Amino acid sequence: MKSIIVCTSVSHGNTKRVADVMGQALDARIVEPEQVDIAKLAAYDLVGFGSGIYLGSFHSRLLEFVESLPEGQQHKAFVFATSGFPDARPHAFSRPLVRRLGQKGFEVIDTFSCRAFDTYLPFRLVGGIRKGRPNAADLESARTFAEGLPARASATP
């Protein structure tokens, strides 16, 4: 399964570390949104979209990239994030991106998130939260998640 991961990682490199582990598991190319030739996206069977979470949302560069995609995409996709807080109700931060990708025609087969070092104010005042994250266990969870994606992609029509 030919895969690509579109990743924005700007603060501490947390999301890039997760993307690297997923990319190894999937033998996927990892690129920033500005490096993607949208016309060549059709060559991929599986597309990953990931970034850190900023004020409860994915990074604006990733969101702008998704907005620029034409409708009618026919790819399987997955979404991943790193955040100081969990992707949980009532404010699940992955939900709006998953919904928008669906409107573009992507079939989002799964999502993944893990905790990560966060220095957004007011956390910066105390040296940040979730120091040392993502840790080895988080990265192993990311690898396990990615290794299971091809089977989940094949299982969905």
From TrEMBL:
Matching PANTHER family: PROTOPORPHYRINOGEN IX DEHYDROGENASE [MENAQUINONE], PROTOPORPHYRINOGEN IX DEHYDROGENASE [QUINONE]
Location of the Flavodoxin-like domain: 4-150
Pfam families: Flavodoxin_5
Origin species: Rhodococcus oryzae
Superkingdom to which the source organism belongs: Bacteria
Lineage start: Bacteria, Bacillati, Actinomycetota, Actinomycetes, Mycobacteriales
Protein name: Flavodoxin
